[in-house]
Specification:
It is a single chain. With about 475 residues, this protein is an alpha/beta fold. Among the domains are: about 130 residues, 3-Layer(aba) Sandwich (Rossmann fold), CATH 3.40.50; about 160 residues, 3-Layer(aba) Sandwich (Rossmann fold); about 50 residues, Orthogonal Bundle (Arc Repressor Mutant, subunit A), CATH 1.10.10. It has a five-stranded parallel beta sheet, sandwiched between helices. The chain has a five-stranded parallel beta sheet with strand order 7-10-13-6-14. Strands 8-9 form a two-stranded antiparallel sheet. Helix 2 runs parallel beside helix 3, helix 6 crosses helix 7 and helix 17 packs across helix 18.
Amino acid sequence: MANILVCDDERSICELLDIALKKDGHKVETVNSGDAAKRKLDSALYDVVLTDVKMPQTDGLEVLKHARRASPDSAVVLITAVEDVHAAIQAVKEGASDYIQKGPDLLEAIRVAIQNALDRVNLRRQNFALRRDAAVRNSLDNIIGASSAVAKMKQTIRTVASTSSTIVIHGESGTGKELVARAVHACSPRAQEPFVSINCGAFPESLLESELFGYVKGAFTGANQNKRGLFEVAHGGTIFLDEISEMSLAMQVKLLRVLQERVLRPVGGTDEIPIDVRVIAATNKDLAKMVGEGTFREDLYYRVSVIPIEVPPLRERREDVPLLATHFLKKYAPAAGKGIVRISPGAFDALMGYEWPGNVRQLENTIERAVALEGSSELHIEVPAVRLRLSLNSSGNSNGNGNGNGHSALESEGPHVGLPAVPQFIPVGGVDLERYIASFERALIQSALRQSNGVQTRAADLLKLSYRSFRHLLKKYAI
């Protein structure tokens, strides 16, 4: 089904096309002047515009030019009562999808032109989605691991992929929730259609709405042309809503309506657009708890939680660490022009002994960094960083014996990921404790920002801080 605008100053032609095209299953609107068509193009999104060439005041070529500016994704088919080679050439130059002469076969010619136009529109949408996601292959093969937890998750993916039900993926930051969503799409009947992803926490509410639902020309300052939203781009395929818990309550209401009614209304528009999209959401938060706290709508919770998938943290599948580390070595060593062929046994021990609070993303960053610094054919992970652990006795003084009650100690923190060095022993002259703590705090904040690709709310989650506290630290350290 296409959303079609018909413009012709002959009312009989408009009535004919309105009846015939609606019978074919299309949504049709008709106008009888070029100026009316331009107003429609400014207020709604159309897949195809059918316009007569010869009309008083504003002709079909003017409608075509306006459509190219206001709604460049719309295909424009020009119709004329007389054969005019010059007008046809001009129409092609201006970007017309087709040029048809009125006659006994007009209706059939228009049907063919509409189908050709829809094929081109769909191809553009698919190409857009493919360009957006070309960096990642859509396959279960991207989920690296031989553990029972990963095997169970892959089986769940195969089982639910054939359904059209909404899925919510739960997992800590860095566990690979988007890879799971892509795998579901790749194993589904929609695999040949677009997969479109968006991080809901990366946009303020007003921008998120226009990204998801699109907008019409003039909807807000800077909206100089119609733009299709990601839901419409993903038509026939899958849309992945990452960090859905970051949506405002007002935005949740709008999303709920789209999920229930399967139609959307672009920002500033008046017409509703039907959509056929499989929705996969993801979060690192406890949505049920958020419902209880009043920060996530209960009706939306049940709408998106039809099928839940749990992605295990890396610490619960340590046997996958060597496979993942080797995979990332093969990925980054050639790209860095390094002839590194293996990981040293000591490095494997360090990797296996770490808790990986940042999960697979942190492991990948660690291997990438180690590859960049390695000068031999064997990958070594730097000496484990350490964390200063202070315990004070009831009087508030260190007992100084290195054991038991209250002595300050140094505790292994895992593979070095760029934290400041800390001395193994307190020097004779003592240490500036506040300075050391500040340096660690600053380094951890910067590391969290790197791992979260600069998304502050996600970085705050990695550090188990409230967003307000995190912002205070950013200001304190001028980060």
